[in-house]
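Why should sequence recovery work at all? Because a backbone constrains its sequence more than one might expect. Tight turns favour small or flexible residues, buried strands favour hydrophobic ones, and helices have their own preferences. The token representation captures these environments compactly. In the example below, the structure is given first.
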């Protein structure tokens, strides 16, 4: 008899970006750059290192389990009542808490595919069934097909906008129609991990789209634009009753003391965050334009990465990049996601792409 659930064999493994020193050693290059995990390349925001250093003196005490100061701060910044906010150990943990709070065995979770690779892992591990709706030919969510896929067993639908890994974002009228069609009995999670990089005015702010819709949950993170990927803080905004239910399944004390302090300091540095995001967005335009000289099928991206729909050539392209000291993220048989880095890092990628495409 297996000691753990046999159905876990069907769960794909979460694959993280490779370590630059390992790749440099394997490829025989002096240094490798990592453009594989959608991080912003400019280091911690001002004030974060000091806040972490201060917080470390209190590590023998448990953190505030209700994360009150951070929820109040986020509430002020985003005009959301703090009782609607839940904070978690990264937004990926919150995505799992949402599903855990919503599904019973056999219930269904609808999402676009390809999308964030944690969705199938979370769905299966919570005992629910994944209903994957193929992206359109333009690598975007097919919201009408997703609404068609909703049944009486559907408890959660994820809308990932901008979508990881394709970078496409949903437009306001399409989202409104989707929410109208799905109705009030399905929790719709608008996963906006890359919201700060959006420049297309047609792309709605999920927090605004959620107004007056108690079934809509908005998921945000401090990992990407705010530069705290290694500290692990995410948050969600939901109807107070939904937020309360989710809090019941959150692992106690999951946002540690150091992380709460770092998040508050990062939020104090919003001007600098915006400046860095602007640099990334400028570089995104430059890199996408340059890559489109090589391939015309790169979709528009509103995130800090771009998608190369290379199909069966994905793994080979990624291996070729690694040989040239650039770590990108292949999705075998489908495509390659490339994070926008510093101008020098992007130049290195463009040189590799020029050789390989
Ligand atoms: N949602 C999406 C769409 C993501 O791409 C990611 C990170 N890859 C997350 C959520 C989770 O981010 P974190 O747990 O670092 O907040």
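From this structural description, the recovered sequence reads:
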């Amino acid at each position: 008899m297996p000691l753990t659930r046999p159905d876990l064999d069907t769960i794909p493994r979460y694959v993280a970006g490779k370590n630059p020193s390992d790749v440099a050693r394997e490829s025989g290059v002096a240094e490798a750059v990592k453009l594989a995990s959608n991080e912003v390349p400019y280091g911690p925001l001002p004030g974060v290192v000091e806040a972490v250093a201060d917080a470390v003196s209190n590590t023998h005490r448990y953190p505030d389990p209700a994360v009150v100061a951070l929820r109040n701060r986020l509430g002020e910044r985003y005009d959301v009542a703090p009782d609607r906010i839940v904070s978690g150990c990264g937004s990926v943990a919150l995505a799992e808490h949402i599903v855990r709070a919503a599904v019973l065995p056999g219930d269904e979770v609808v999402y676009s595919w390809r999308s964030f690779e944690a969705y199938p892992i979370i769905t299966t591990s919570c005992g629910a069934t994944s209903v994957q709706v193929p992206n359109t030919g333009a690598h975007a969510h097919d919201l009408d097909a997703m609404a068609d896929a909703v049944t009486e067993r559907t408890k959660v639908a994820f809308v990932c906008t901008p979508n990881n890994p394709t970078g496409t974002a949903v437009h306001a009228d399409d989202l409104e129609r989707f929410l109208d069609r799905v109705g009030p009995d399905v929790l719709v999670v608008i996963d906006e991990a890359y919201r700060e990089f959006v420049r297309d005015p047609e792309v709605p702010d999920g927090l605004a789209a959620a107004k007056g819709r108690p079934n809509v949950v908005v998921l945000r993170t401090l990992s990407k634009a705010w530069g705290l990927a290694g500290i692990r803080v995410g948050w969600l905004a939901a109807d107070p009753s939904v937020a309360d239910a989710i809090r019941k399944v959150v692992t106690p004390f999951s946002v540690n003391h150091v992380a709460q302090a770092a998040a508050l300091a990062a939020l104090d540095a919003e001007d600098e965050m915006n400046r860095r995001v602007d640099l990334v967005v400028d570089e995104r335009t430059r890199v996408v334009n340059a890559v489109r000289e090589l391939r015309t099928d790169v979709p528009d991206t509103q995130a800090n990465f771009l998608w190369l729909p290379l199909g069966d050539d994905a793994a080979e392209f990624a291996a070729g990049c690694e040989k040239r000291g650039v770590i990108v993220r292949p999705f075998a048989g489908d495509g390659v996601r490339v994070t926008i880095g510093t101008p020098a890092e992007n130049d290195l990628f463009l040189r590799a792409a020029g050789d390989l495409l």
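A few observations help interpret the result. Residues 23 and 117 are 23 Å apart (CA to CA).
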